[in-house]
Amino acid sequence: MKFGMMKPRIMKLRFNVLLGGLLLAAMPLAVAQTGMLNVPRTVEAGSAFSIPTSGSGKAVLYIVGPAQVLRREVKLGETVSFAAGDLHNAGHYLALLVGGSGTENGAFDVVASHPASLSFLAKPSRLPVDLQNGISGVVYVFDTFRNLVIAPSEVTFQLSGVAGAGQARTVTTRDGVAWTKLNSATKEGAAQFIARDGGISATRVIQQVPGDPCRLRMNARLSNQKLGDPKLANQKLTDHRPAQQRLTLETEPVRDCGGNAVPDGTIVTFKEIYKDGEATVDVPVKRGVARTEMPAYPGATISVATGVVMGNEIRWK
Amino acid sequence: MLAFVLAVATLVLIVIGTIWPGPSAVAMAGAGADLLRASSTPEAAVNNLAHEIAQNAWERAYSNLANKNEFSEPDFVHDLTGGYSSLRTYATLDTFEVRPLHATDNEAQMQLRLRWSTVLGTFADTRQLRVVNTGGRWQVVWPLVKEPRVPPQVIAVNYLRWDVIYRGPEDDWGAQDVEAPHVRIVDMHPVERAEGVVLLGEVLNEDVVPAYVNVKATLLGKNGAAIATEDSFDKISHVLLPKQVTPFLIAFRKVELSQVDSVKMEPSSTLIAASADPVIEIEDQKLNPPPGATFTGKLVNQSGQVVNVVHVLGTFYDSSGQLVWVADQYIDRALLPQIPESFAIPLPADLARKVSSQRAVTTTYTSGQFQ
């Protein structure tokens, strides 16, 4: 249904563009043969405007521009009025008045209206804390009709929402675009990244996450030293292995070099090397620490690591 | 004339194959018991049992066992297909081999090697069978491997998972989407093997969110043209939790290292919903020297859920810490909470001599859940 309705429109647009193209092609010839039409130099997109004509008789006025062609039957000597919203695409337009005695022409620019919306590209949406110039913001300023507003305007970028002073920077748009780079905060958290131009604004959320773990440390103790642990009680029910002492290995709260706790789910690898082999286990950090159990072999060396960061080593006696 | 001879020969072979089919063909064709030979010898008894297993004729196979008073038919079926859903549950018997080890008039020792086929490749199940002569009829004494059962209980789990809300179609083009996880290749090493060039490496998820990773590589020739493009397929742990490292192996068949000028690596990552459970401990890891070099160990599921399929990836390093080889194995039985399951990853003999240390990681698949 929709496609069926669209087809005549597309055909009409194609016809108009073809007509416009032919008229543009004929322009040099028309200019050579005829006089100038009295048109305004610039028209704000979407605003009303008029074009006076002279002489007598009937003529046809063509307004040809990017993606838009208007055709009006006019009586020469009258002023042709265009209502607000008739021309809304910014760009360079040609006006051609084709009558029985010849052709008059003129050219004018439709310029973008006042800023009405911002397209705000903020990258990345997630980055480590304390990264210099790590956050980039680019703003494209558009008017109501989605024309790029190329007139310079002041855009303020503001990064706030995490502990410490926020950052703000004001940039003047150049050809409709303003951009900046900001540092990520030293504390983790979601920051509001706001771009503002006059009364309009756009907001993005930048998640500032902890960096690589720093000073990873663990401690070990015999599992039976901690009584009443429900997990251990479960293990007794299900463990079919021969009775063997187990070690509980637990890291200290895992933090980055700025003291931010690494998020739960970060994988910490425990490795135990003993006389006849070795054991490893990848454990996710839960509630700030990674905790697991491994066999207790006298003389075993136990190490801990996460990603490419090594932690301390324990020799179990 | 030649065409006529070939046509006649083909017809003759078809007739021979139909009238006197091979044992494996009989088994795979699902032919009935009529084609089975009488169990008048130990070999025939084991062959018949293997045929019945291939045909999933569990009742007949069980009824012909000499020790069926020791266990029930479901126990026998669970021994072969797994009590919990696992690779065995969906496996079909591809081939089998029977090897006599020792025989007397009343008793024989036989080895039955069953080769099962699954969507993830094949696995072998070798059983040493005792076959006894009972009144002129040979019967197999089945060495039942009873799958342990987990007693009913409640295991409290501090559940941790990530969910993702992606950008919607209605969002403005400037609206940001969730950032893809940042992953990094931390090690890469090409190796020339008889079958072609193999790229080995390791990928680190350096982000704070889970990633679905894949690694694609393109070999470039001396003139800059691409020789071949491959990816790591299943020789990688695709789901990487934050700060987790996985090995990868990319094989380029029929390519020589001398042809290669450079390699273009393309690691890709996608943010996915994932769970941090289950936690798998890998105990008793050992490198067993050649001949028959293997990397063995035991997997212990520290969580409370039954894991249906476990994929073990081993990364092997030489004495200088350089990556030497990556190998893997799928475990054919389900991994039950706290019940160790052994694995043995074979290593090429020539490379095994260079290996001085190793690292193992696991990927788990639980029915109804990815990761």
The major β-sheet of chain B equals: 4 strands, antiparallel
Shape by Cα distribution of chain A: rod-shaped
Number of domains of chain B: 3
Low-confidence stretches of chain A: 1-13, 23-33, 225-242
Please state the average pLDDT score of chain A: 84
Beta fraction of chain B: 35-45%
Structural description of this entry:
The complex is a heterodimer of chains A (317) and B (371). Chain A has helices at 2-33, 230-238; strands at residues 42-44, 49-52, 58-65, 68-75, 79-82, 91-99, 103-111, 117-123, 126-128, 135-142, 154-160, 167-172, 177-182, 189-197, 200-209, 213-214, 218-222, 246-251, 255-256, 267-274, 277-284, 291-295, 301-306, 309-315. Chain A has 317 residues and is mainly beta. Chain A has three domains: 2-111, Immunoglobulins (Immunoglobulin-like, Sandwich); 117-209, Sandwich (Immunoglobulin-like); 213-315, Sandwich (Immunoglobulin-like). In chain A, the strands form seven sheets. Chain A has a five-stranded mixed β-sheet, covered by helices on one side. Chain A has a five-stranded mixed β-sheet with strand order 9-15-14-11-12, with no helix packed on it. Chain A has a four-stranded antiparallel β-sheet with strand order 21-20-23-24, with no helix packed on it. In chain A, a hairpin with a 2-residue loop joins strand 14 (189-197) and strand 15 (200-209). Residues 1-13, 23-33 and 225-242 of chain A have low confidence and may be disordered. With 371 residues, chain B is an alpha+beta fold. Chain B has six helices and 19 strands. Chain B has helices at 2-19, 23-29, 42-54, 58-63, 73-81, 349-352; strands spanning 92-103, 107-118, 121-134, 137-141, 161-162, 183-193, 196-205, 211-220, 226-231, 239-240, 245-253, 262-271, 274-275, 280-288, 294-301, 309-317, 323-331, 341-346, 357-365. Chain B has a four-stranded antiparallel β-sheet, covered by helices on one side. In chain B, strands 8, 9, 10 and 12 form a four-stranded antiparallel β-sheet that branches. In chain B, a hairpin with a 5-residue loop joins strand 16 (309-317) and strand 17. Chains A and B meet through strand 8, strand 15, helix 2, strand 21 and strand 22 of A and strand 14 and strand 19 of B.
